[in-house]
Amino acid sequence: MCSTIVSPPTQSSPSRRRGTLSRGLACLTILYGLLALAGCPQGSGGSSQDLPDSAKAPAAPTLSMAAVAKPGTAAKPVKPKRPTQVVLEEIVRKYCVDGSRPWALAHALIALGPDVKMPSGKLAIDFLASRYIRKDDEGRWVFAVTHSKRNPWPHPGMFSKVLLGNGVSLDRQLPTKVGGTVTLRALVKDMIHGYEPSNDLYNEAWKLEGEAAVGKPDRIAELAKHSLDTLAYHQAYLEEYLHNRTRVWEKPFVVRNGRRAPTAIHRYFCGGCHLFQAVQQLHGKELPPRLKLQYDILLLRFDLESDYWDTKLGEARAHGHQRSRAKYERLFLSQKLKMQGHILETYVKGVELGAIKMDEEAKTKVAAAYERLAATVATLDQQGIYDQMDSYEARELQVYLDLIGDTAHALHAWQGRKVLGL
Predict the structure, then answer these.
(1) CA proximity to 16, closest of 31, 4, 32, 30
(2) What are 300-340's pLDDT values in tens digits?
(3) Which of 234, 237, 243, 141 is nearest to 192 (CA)?
(4) Distances from the Cα of 205 to the Cαs of 42, 71, 195, 213, 281, in angstroms?
(5) pTM
(6) How far apart, in whole angstroms, are the C-alpha atoms of residue 181 and residue 163?
(7) Is 158 inside a domain boundary?
(8) Residue 376 placed within a domain
(9) Residue 181: which residues within 8 A CB-CB, separation 6 or more?
(10) Which range marks the domain in which residue 182 is found?
């Protein structure tokens, strides 16, 4: 059973342990695929009672993997051999500034800003726009990328979100594939044309951010309430851990079609962080108490999920053979990087908007989180995982894609320390 992925029996023969680890690795592969898919969709608003059953978290996990540290399995602190910024930026510049991978290039813009240039000297924004902005069958402007396994484009509106997030003017003229130019404002308006939020906002953060940028005040207010309802609903189960820090945390899963699937906020792409960012964009500088609570939960999640992956990593190192141990390290570290980078990035965005005010207590908490992110990056660097990136593309594509995209988000978050006064 997958719930014992990296915990072999305390007493067994070497051959039995190898069999257990082998079966566990197979289960882990399934789990990892599900986790990787649980990245960044979004839902709609309304009361939590209006959410469909498939979007609701169970009162207690049907199946779970407890984040309980076992004796001798805790991850050891790692001192970086190179500065965190240097490691992250090296990977982003090598693997994201790639004209053949629009998804990766969009992530370069996230991490490096709107002035990123292609080797030819052309701005990456204009390069992407001139290749992929066209009109659809209804005559509306769209940024359309042909999806493929190697070149994923899972997020409708990602290009517009990246530009808006970089402070690019709505009046910016963008070259199009069909000739001429279109303003970012027109592209965003066409993206949200006819948009009606769904009940669970699973993959709608991009459109919510478009509404925040060009929508009418009444519409923005309606969506702000609706999206906060959804975010709060899916994070609600974590409140009990916020009030009882000694309670053992479990990462909740349900079984769907015979397989584990993340539930609660974990079912959203990137743990719901993109939804969270859209919620704050819709609220602007406002931080009502209910939204402030979500940030408290977000920082708690940083610790809980970091501890969870550290525990699993420690168990793999204590019990696994060298080959399986190396694979576990790639899987677990890439997932930890994903959550740490996205959570800190989300917090930084709240401060940038003026919603969150950094007092000394907040600085202490967030500084500790940055130390943990630095340790994750240092481990990836020292274990040589980043050195083997090219080999993962052929045999572990999901790890490859995660490391590319999530390294970009981690770099973006790392640079945000200046905004936080750290």
Answers:
(1) 4
(2) 999 999 999 999 888 888 887 777 788 889 999 999 999 99
(3) 141
(4) 5, 41, 12, 12, 10
(5) 0.84
(6) 16
(7) yes
(8) no
(9) 173, 174, 175
(10) 79-198
